[in-house]
Structure formats: structure tokens, C-alpha cells
Amino acid sequence: QVQLVESGGGLVQAGGSLRLSCAASGRTFSNYAMGWFRQAPGKEREFVAAINWSGSTGSTASVKGRFTISRDNAKNTVYLQMNSLKPEDTAVYYCAARQGIVVSSRTMYDYWGQGTQVTVSS
């Protein structure tokens, strides 16, 4: 089992920044690819970004150039730095883990955190 706990969400004005953190415990963190997903009210949960054990990353087009995913294997933590935030980024952000390579499909992730709310005001 892998336990994931997100933090760092909050209310920010458009153009502002937030950094989300996801602390993992229970298994060897470095063996897992880590992903960030988000879910806005009335919408499906969507892929944001992911990073594998060696640091290779992938992200969805709408956040490229604004969001950066990173990980610190010594701290068992993955981060999502979010800059130039827009109102359409408002959602609950979830951290997820899977063994293997980075993928964007939420069904391929085995472990999920409880989510953290990000609200961007216009």
C-alpha cells in the first residue's frame, strides 16, 4: 500500500502561484511514477502532469509553460509548481501513484490522495 497526502491548495488571484506537495509513505517511493490530476465541479477528473522515478515528465497541453512537476525521492514527496494561474485551473487537485512509466490515464494509477482544493479568482 502507498498512502498519499496532498497539501498546498488555497485561494489565489489570477496570475498568481501555488505549490502543491504530495507526501508518500508505505512503499519505496522511488519505484513509483507520480501523477497530478484535477477535477472541476461537474467535470471528469483529468490528467495534469506526471513524473517517473528518473525525473522524466509529461503534462497536458493546457498547463505547459505554467506548471512544473518535480520530485524529491529523499523526502518521498512530489511537487506541482503552478504559475500564471487562471480561473479555469480551479479544481480539486489529486496526487496519484503507479509502478512503471508515466501515463496520462487515471485508470492506470493504483493509489490516490484525498485531494486539495485550488481556487483561482478572476
Report on this model:
There is one protein chain. The chain has 122 residues and is mostly beta strands. Helix content is 0%, strand content 52%. It contains no helices and eleven strands. Strands 2, 4, 5, 6, 9, 10 and 11 form a seven-stranded mixed beta sheet that branches. The chain is globular.
Which features would summarize this protein structure in a list?
4-stranded antiparallel sheet; 0% helix
- Which ranges are low-confidence, i.e. pLDDT below 50, for 5 or more consecutive residues? none
Structural class: mainly beta
Helix content: under 10%
Strand content: over 45%
Terminus-to-terminus distance: 40 Å
Our count of helices gives: 0
> How would you sum up the global shape?
globular
User: What's the mean pLDDT score?
Assistant: 95
Largest sheet data: 7 strands, mixed
Order of helices and strands: EEEEEEEEEEE
Annotation, overall tally of beta strands? 11
| Spatial extent as radius of gyration | 13 Å
